[in-house]
Each structure stands twice: as structure tokens, then as C-alpha cells.
Amino acid sequence: MRARIVTGGVLAPAAVVLTLWSPSWLFASLALALMLAALAEWSRLSPATATAPTAVAVAAVAAVMSIAALWLFLTPQKLPAVCLAGLLFWAYQAVDLARKGLGNAPEALSNLIQGGVIGLFAWCALVWLHAEQGAAMTIAVLLIVWSADSGAYFAGKRFGKRKLAPAISPGKTVAGLVGGVAAAVGVALLLAVLLPDLSAAKIPLWLLAAIVAALFGVVGDLYESRMKRRAGVKDSGSLLPGHGGILDRIDGLLAALPPFVIIWRLAE
Fold first, then answer.
1. What mean pLDDT is predicted for residues 242-263?
2. For the residues of the chain, what is the DSSP string, one character each?
3. pTM to 2 decimals?
4. What pLDDT, in 10s, does the model give residues 116-169?
């Protein structure tokens, strides 16, 4: 618990500072570096019965991600369309998780490619937010998703009894889900007061986007938990004390960002 809090206390301010002070090109580069680091961990979550992707395969997928990111950065009008594809992808995964539970593990290479696509979805959402909505709005969205994750963790620890998806993640509870959504709404309401460009007419849509982001964050968390169960590992890595790997820290964010962007674009 202490390591988790200390790590979060270091990472969150660093993310805020980099988001506030970075020009769009640097922010996009840093976000891509984060997604590539997550991809490296993703490549190690191959099904336990499969051979892990080779270094050449991982490098090839990373190269394609980087080229696609550069093209999308130079053609920003395409970013929302990619975010919409991300929303549809995660909506399908939500249904798939509910219907199949652990389901059948994909081939290692297919799993790796899927990881690259998921990272690109989230990258597009981050870049669009930072370039079109500004650094303050980007930080606000990150705070909403992080608060949902923390709210779910503490509510689940304190009140969690009924399991949400025991076959995939025994630690997830219905109380945690409710606590995460409540925390996201609470932080969104606070931010609605603090953000100068958020008019009263936009607040209902703002809250809806926060709720949807919190719910999709749970989908992303369960999706990675399913991957780890198939691979037979507890964490995606060990880089972040109390959190595991980078992928463990951003799994909810990967799924939450594209839906948030699509809903919030309705406010334009």
C-alpha cells in the first residue's frame, strides 16, 4: 500500500508538469514513448502455451506504431476517427469479457499487433486532447481516470464483497466499480468549477464523459487482467513499485481515453 501511494505521488506530479510545459510535438513524442514502453511489456504477456514474440516482431510493430503516429500527428484531422475506432474496439471488448470471461487466448503475434493498435488508439486521444483542448483539459481527463482507479481500489478494499468478474480478476468487486464511478464524478464536478472554459451548459456532457471513461477504464483493467491470467503472471512488469509495470498503471487509461474524446467532441 505504501509503495503504491509513494509511486503514485511521484508519477502524478511528473505527468502534470510534462503535460503543462511540453509543446504539442514534445508531448506527442513522450506519449508515444509511453505507449512503446507499454508495448514492450505487452509482448511478454503471450499465452502461457505460446512462444513469446521475437525481438524482431516487437521492433517491427513498434516501428509501424511510430510511423503511423507521425502520419497522424501531421494529419490531426484524422485523430477523432481513430478515437472512434478505439471506442468501438473497447465496446466490443466489454461485450466479449461479459460473454466469454477468460475465453480463448489469441496467437502471440496477433496479441502483439493488437497491443500496438490499442496503444495507438490511446495515443491519438491524448494528442487530440493536448492539441485541441489544451494542457489543462488533458490533465483534467487524466485526473478523472486516475481518481476512478483509486476510488475503485479503496472502495473495493473497504466494502468489496460481491465479485465483479471472479474468473478474470478475483480482486475486482461491484463496490469497487461503484466507488470508482463515484470518485470520477466527484473529481469531474470539482474540475468543472476550476476549469475556466467549461460552461454550465457543457457540464452534463462533461459528467457523462467522466462516467463513461470510468466504466471503460474498468474494461481496460479487466482486459489486461485476462491477458495476465492467460500468461500466468501477476504483473506486466516490475518497474513501478506497488503498481507492477507501466501497462499495469495505464491499462484503464488505454480504454478510457478514446470514449472520453468521442463524447467530449459533442460539446464543440
1. 88
2. -HHHHHHHHHHHHHHHHHHHH--HHHHHHHHHHHHHHHHHHHTT---TTSPPPPHHHHHHHHHHHHHHHHHHHHSGGGHHHHHHHHHHHHHHHHHHHHHHTT-PPPPHHHHHHHHHHHHHHHHHHHHHIIIII-HHHHHHHHHHHHHHHHHHHHHHHHH--SEEETTTEEEEEHHHHHHHHHHHHHHHHHHHHH-TT--GGGHHHHHHHHHHHHHHHHHHHHHHHHHHHHHT-S-S-SSBTTTBSHHHHHHHHHHHHHHHHHHHGGG-
3. 0.91
4. 999 999 999 999 999 999 999 999 999 999 999 999 989 988 887 899 988 888
